[in-house]
């Protein structure tokens, strides 16, 4: 079994987020940048360019089939969302791998993460939160620690997943006992290394608790709840059968309207299917 | 409820739920088209890897009968070591049951 030090060393050697993300952040930080400046950065990366176009033309935005250039897409979809989509596409690319485990494969875990992203964004929209796309990206990234283990120590992690599925023990407890580090800590270390926003790092660390005071409060509470919803709906897989409990304090923070979930179901399922088709299919 | 499938999963008689549109806004195949396995080549030519189809009518029209609700509830409770304790959790529980009965293939 790999020791904690070996895993941390592997995290330090992980690829950085591609330059397109850093370049986009720089271009967008300049108030004089125009949509064509942003478009010219995206155009350098063919995979991102075609997915941004597909996104802009998908039912998520309602301009179906009418957007034909990247700069048009940037205007309609928005600067921040384009940046976050590029981040999601880059992260998916880094963790594009096959699994040794029969219990959990990366595609099913990505489906779960996309579901959490879609549900988080939907909750955020309803509760009037700003930066909706932060919610989507936070959902996509919340379980990144599991992907790190699947990539860094595939055989050991496969055994852990089988053990958890047979024994019903908590995944994080087994990870801690066998590896000396949980997927939440491993994920946070990578998010730090990638210099992702502190709020996103908090989501990874506090997703099971659901509460973190300060700037991250709403984001952490939302992703905590969305993770339970996605697990209940069986959208993708998490490596654990059991539906985690909800910290009841999140209801006070989010103030959801009555019958929120039963009304949201058709929209959530449609957005989930659109996002899966967009992000998990090649080209 | 539309369902996403990969083009290799296309079977004769499936119905396209969303039109296929190219980047210039031209419709290549309208929503409602009845698909044949031979459409696989058409989608591959256009570099389309997956499409939305109308899901089985029997699932969408399935009534939430007491018997089906009972089965779905038991399946859900088996995966939970907590029970709904307020209106939000009750609503969440109901949503999961509706999804299990009406959209069992969406995963």
Low-confidence stretches of chain B: none
Number of helices of chain B: 4
Discrete helix count of chain A: 16
Could you say which structural class the secondary elements and strand pairing of chain B correspond to?
alpha+beta
Q: How large is the radius of gyration of chain A? A: 19 Å
SSE string of chain B: EEEHEHHH
Largest sheet of chain B: 2 strands, antiparallel
What is the rounded distance between the termini of chain A? 37 Å
Mean pLDDT of chain A comes to 86
Given the C-alpha coordinates, what overall shape of chain B results? elongated
Overall mean pLDDT of chain B: 84
Helix content of chain B: 25-40%
Count every beta strand of chain A, where a strand is a DSSP E run of 2 or more residues.
Answer: 0
Radius of gyration of chain B: 18 Å
CA-CA gap between termini of chain B:
13 Å
* Strands ordered across the widest β-sheet of chain B: 1-4
Shape of chain A: globular
> Could you name the ranges of chain A where pLDDT drops below 50 across 5 or more consecutive residues?
none
> Class by helix and strand content of chain A?
mainly alpha
Describe the structure.
- Chain A has 283 residues and is mainly alpha-helical.
- Chain A is built from 16 helices and no strands.
- Chain B has 107 residues and is α+β, with helices and mostly antiparallel strands.
- In chain B, 37% of the residues lie in helices and 14% in strands.
- Chain B is built from 4 helices and 4 strands.
- In chain B, the strands form 2 sheets. A two-stranded antiparallel ribbon of chain B has the order 1-4. Chain B has a two-stranded antiparallel ribbon with strand order 2-3.
- Chain B is elongated, with a radius of gyration of 18 Å.
- At the A-B interface, helix 14 and helix 16 of A face strand 1 and helix 4 of B.
């Amino acid at each position: 079994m790999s020791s904690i030090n070996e895993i941390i060393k592997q995290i330090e050697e992980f690829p950085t987020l591609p330059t397109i993300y850093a370049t986009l952040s720089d271009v967008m930080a300049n108030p004089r940048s125009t949509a064509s400046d942003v478009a010219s950065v995206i155009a350098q990366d063919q995979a991102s360019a075609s997915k941004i176009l597909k996104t802009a033309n998908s039912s998520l935005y309602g301009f179906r089939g009418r957007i034909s250039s990247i700069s048009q897409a940037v205007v309609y979809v928005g600067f921040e969302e384009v940046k976050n989509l590029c981040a999601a596409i880059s992260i998916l690319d880094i963790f594009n791998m096959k699994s040794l485990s029969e219990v959990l494969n990366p595609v099913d875990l990505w489906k779960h993460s996309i579901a959490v992203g879609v549900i988080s964004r939907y909750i955020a929209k309803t509760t009037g939160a700003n930066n909706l796309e932060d919610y989507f990206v936070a959902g996509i990234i919340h379980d990144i620690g599991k992907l790190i283990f699947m990539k860094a120590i595939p055989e050991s992690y496969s055994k852990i997943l089988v053990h958890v599925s047979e024994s019903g023990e908590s995944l994080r407890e087994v990870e801690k006992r066998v590896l000396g580090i949980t997927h939440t800590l491993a994920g946070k270390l990578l998010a730090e290394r990638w210099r992702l926003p502190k709020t996103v790092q908090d989501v990874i660390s506090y997703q099971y608790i659901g509460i973190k005071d300060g700037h991250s409060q709403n984001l952490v509470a939302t992703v905590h709840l969305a993770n339970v919803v996605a697990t209940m709906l069986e959208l993708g897989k998490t490596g654990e059968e059991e539906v985690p409990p909800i910290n009841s304090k999140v209801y006070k923070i989010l103030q959801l309207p009555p019958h929120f979930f039963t009304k949201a179901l058709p929209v959530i399922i449609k957005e989930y299917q659109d996002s899966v088709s967009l992000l998990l299919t090649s080209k | 409820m539309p369902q996403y499938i990969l083009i290799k999963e296309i079977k004769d008689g499936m119905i396209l739920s969303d039109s296929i549109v190219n980047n210039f806004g031209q419709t290549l195949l309208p929503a409602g088209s009845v698909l044949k396995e031979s459409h696989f080549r058409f989608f591959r030519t256009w570099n389309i890897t997956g499409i939305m189809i109308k899901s089985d009518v029997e699932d969408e029209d399935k009534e939430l009968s007491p018997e089906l609700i009972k089965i779905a509830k038991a399946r859900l409770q088996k995966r939970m070591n907590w029970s709904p304790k307020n209106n939000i959790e009750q609503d969440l529980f109901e949503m999961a049951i509706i999804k299990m009965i009406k959209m069992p293939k969406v995963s």
